[in-house]
Amino acid sequence: MYNFIQKFHSGWAYLALLLLVLAVVNSVIGMTSKKEFTAKDRKIALFALIATHIQLVVGLILYFISEVGMKAFSTEGAMKIPELRLTMLEHPLTNIIAITLITIGWSKHKKGATNESKFKSITLFYGLGLVLILIRIPWKLWL
Ligand code: HEM
């Protein structure tokens, strides 16, 4: 069970990040070139939202079954070990905040009255979410 969830979380991260980068780049282009916000733009943003939400659910399950997740809190001095602090606290917390921002961006774009405001919401919130995710990925474990 642990192996499957861990491998899934590790592999799905590529797809989630790829779609997130695509959504941000697409909305920056749309915003700067003052394009119309079409069904294609909506789909790109929606797929990125879904992919990050799936990663969140799998990440939460992983958090409760991994030795370097919640269980690590019972290890003496765990907070002083940077690698452990990353997987037991920083990575999960930062990613939950990031995915919350992405979700806010999605609902704000829906309320946006103009093409520009829709692209702006995606650029700002998805962009911020992407940065937060990237600064707290356990790169050493992953690559
Ligand atoms: C878009 C959001 C996320 C991305 C891109 C992401 C990506 C990753 C990556 C690349 C790894 C390293 C995998 C490996 O060892 O090959 C990892 C590990 C981990 N992630 Fe996430 N993650 C995300 C969200 C979350 C969330 C929300 C949680 C928990 C609430 C979480 C919990 C964990 C845990 C506990 C590990 C360490 C697992 C282990 O090695 O046993 N992740 N994550």
What does the overall shape look like? elongated
Mean pLDDT over the full residue set = 97
Gap between N and C termini, in Å? 22 Å
Report the count of strand segments.
0
Number of contiguous helices: 5
The helical percent reads: over 70%
SSE class: mainly alpha
Largest sheet: none
Give an account of the 3D structure.
This is 50S ribosomal protein L27. Keywords: Membrane, Transmembrane, Transmembrane helix. It comes from Flavobacterium chungnamense. The chain crosses the membrane at residues 12-32, 44-66, 86-107, 119-139. The protein has one domain (2-142). The protein has five helices and no strands. The protein has helices at residues 2-32, 39-65, 82-111, 115-135, 139-142. Helix 1 runs antiparallel to helix 2, helix 1 packs antiparallel against helix 4 and helix 2 packs antiparallel against helix 3 (82-111). The model has no long low-confidence stretch (mean pLDDT 97). Protoporphyrin IX containing FE is lined by residues 6, 9-10, 13, 16-17, 52, 55-56, 59-60, 62-63, 66, 68-69, 87, 91-92, 95-96, 133, 137-138, 141-142.
